[in-house]
Amino acid sequence: MANRLDTFRQDQDNDGLFDVISSDFLHTIRLSIDSQNIQKLKEHLLPLEAPDLGLLLEQLDSDERITVIDTIRPDFDYDTLLYLSEHVQSEIIDYLGIDRLARHLAELDSDDAFTLIDELPSEQQSEILTKISASQRASYEKILSYPEDSAARLMQQEFVAVPSFWKVGDVLKFIQKSKGMPDEFYEVYVVDPKHHVVGVIPNSLLLKTKTEGAIREIMKTDFKSISANLDQEEVAYLFRHYDLVSAPVLDESGRVIGMITSDDVVDVIEEEAEKDILQMARVSETDYNAPFYVTSYQRIGWLVVTLINALLGAVVIQHYHTTIEQKGALAALMTIVAAMGASNGMQVIAVTMRAISTRIIHSGNIWKPIGKEALVGLMNAFVFSIILSLIVVFWFKEPALVWILVISFTFNMIWASFGGVLMTYAIEKMGFDSAVSAGPLLTATTDVLGFACFLGLATLVL
Amino acid sequence: MANRLDTFRQDQDNDGLFDVISSDFLHTIRLSIDSQNIQKLKEHLLPLEAPDLGLLLEQLDSDERITVIDTIRPDFDYDTLLYLSEHVQSEIIDYLGIDRLARHLAELDSDDAFTLIDELPSEQQSEILTKISASQRASYEKILSYPEDSAARLMQQEFVAVPSFWKVGDVLKFIQKSKGMPDEFYEVYVVDPKHHVVGVIPNSLLLKTKTEGAIREIMKTDFKSISANLDQEEVAYLFRHYDLVSAPVLDESGRVIGMITSDDVVDVIEEEAEKDILQMARVSETDYNAPFYVTSYQRIGWLVVTLINALLGAVVIQHYHTTIEQKGALAALMTIVAAMGASNGMQVIAVTMRAISTRIIHSGNIWKPIGKEALVGLMNAFVFSIILSLIVVFWFKEPALVWILVISFTFNMIWASFGGVLMTYAIEKMGFDSAVSAGPLLTATTDVLGFACFLGLATLVL
Lengths: 462, 462
Known about the structure:
Two copies of one chain form a homodimer. Chain A is mainly alpha-helical. Helix content of chain A is 64%, strand content 6%. Chain A has a three-stranded mixed beta sheet. The first copy, chain A, has three domains: 10-149, Alpha Horseshoe (MgtE N-terminal fold); 161-280, CBS-domain; 292-461, Tetracycline Repressor, domain 2. Chains A and B meet through strand 1, helix 1, helix 3, helix 11 and helix 12 of A and strand 1, helix 1, helix 3, helix 11 and helix 12 of B.
């Protein structure tokens, strides 16, 4: 498997997406499982790297997963657990047992081991903490003292630190002789006797410098360091903004206690992007392998929000039901006013969210985007008023309907633009997540205002 | 600036987001610009790194940007251009002039220089190609021969390649003596005489090995390499899936021609996530500094799609206008059926999109998610049918309305679940982007079906 796909080419798959686990491979595995051909199964499974084995397990059914685990149990790479969704992960940990997990935790990097322990249910968590070594336990408990989603939870505690009076040759000797070096590292930290970082040397710079070179002279002093309690979203922002590959993590007194590398940050960026996308679609969690009733339960919360939104609109419409009973066409046109307002509002919210997260909008210049969006809303209200007027005139042949529609439509569009920026900014400023709440809040207002304004005007005029 | 913010802490800013350009700093810069205090302005600007200067320029007005550029012109770091949005970037390139840009291009990494040339309008592009050196031009033209958004466009052409018969000491000497080494690199490629990569040595492994160590013995042979024509989204997937920090890029004959590093990939992941989020909110582009009429124009396309959606629904409603004129309450309740169907559909689309992009759903198992989602839809239709029945009974006191609502609501929910998976998968399979089209297509059907089913039943029953 690993060899077959070593070089990744565009044309390997007809729909343009790589299936690192191809349908054919999955089929072969399933055949071996069904035919109990354990030897064959082993041959297919053993060359798989942890991420690929993880993906394979996700795609199998529960009993097939157990067969796979049984087949490769003595050689099972515990890193695989890091690549599983919550449901499959806990299924496999339950099957392997906490004892076995505890024994193999030490094989993992400290950040990965911590992630695994952190994801366990609390009973299993306390159980595993009694079974690992005292030093491992102490280091977990230290990280646990930092807030969830903080830099400390992302970092690994293994890093390379050297004093500033050394030469490059001393650093090389140190790296070659020490035990407990991290598997991979991208830079070496230069520290003073208090373990404060005074400089950073990228590995490539170490390689470029002769062994006689003095650390103090080659180290970079304009490096970025990260406080252990910094939120992971901010860590991701800094890595992106400054194109970092690795950064030292400091505790409250400024001592270096760990290292964050870009692969951890890529996961955070991916997670945060997934969260934003799901929240815009009003999904709180996605776990493909969870049973249907769990998924159903997880979706209900947001559907209740939609229902409340829809009911608010329905109450407004029902208030004007006698007007609608005089003219059924109003029922058709009112939905256009509401839909366009909501769509305009969602556009403004998405753009404002992005501008806030890339730091282009902040408290110093919030009136500028509000002004701009109000102008955009006005402009588009004008364009679509013309289109809508033409449609309604030809369709219903009643000029009064056109005026009612255009006025309520324009009003709703401008409110959506203005309210979109203001609500998104206010929600972020209050420390909430605008991806979650700005959409439903604004849509509720554009629905209610759209219906009320259109039907209210109609009641007055018709 | 750089020194002040060296360590990033959580509590530096009250709304929890880092302003690497704080409001205070922006205010200070603006004061210096207004008071023509060029000396002071220079003192503030010169310590800024390229990403920070870029962000500052984004936040200033057009004439302020010109003053800033004038103030630091001799020391202007051309890397800054990479951190600008399209509108601001072209404004500044126009102001600096193509001549000056051509002279400074060689200071950039080849991938960054290429990105800049690639983003220029076509007249400026051909102009700049006449002004750079022949070797630079040849290398750009080679990259231009690869498709847009391919791995070749992401890679830098500088990398370190060594023969397999060397020892670690030979590699170190080579790196220390050669000119044209990349600024930063994370691994060294071991190549055969045909320039095929036979192994990869991470820098940290080079540092860990004594100078007498043979390359052939320490190199990793289970590395991942990337074909030059691979799409950048696939590159991002592979970096994420295998936790890569760097990978060699191969041409059609398998020769290594470049290197992709994780900072480039982080930008791609961020771009793709931004694209998905914007497309779900029906925004095609976001350029905060574009004039309002450009933004207005960019938003119109998607609003037209919303309008067509809404008009389809309106046509259905109008078809039943006599039924609505008999009972205005129908106008209120029909919006609930449509809203809930649309919301359920968006949830299913978002979850399916994620499962496809993480390779959990593919052609081999597409019926499993369809079955699961249909069950989830049925379950939630049941739950909300009960809630809605109670509300409608107490509100309107008409049992007939309850039955009409429950039947059309259940039908719409199940269609949304089933159609959500199927449409998303079919759109991806046909090679289109489901983030763009699945939402509008499905919403059109849930609106039309919801209205038609509810009003049609009402016409029959009432």
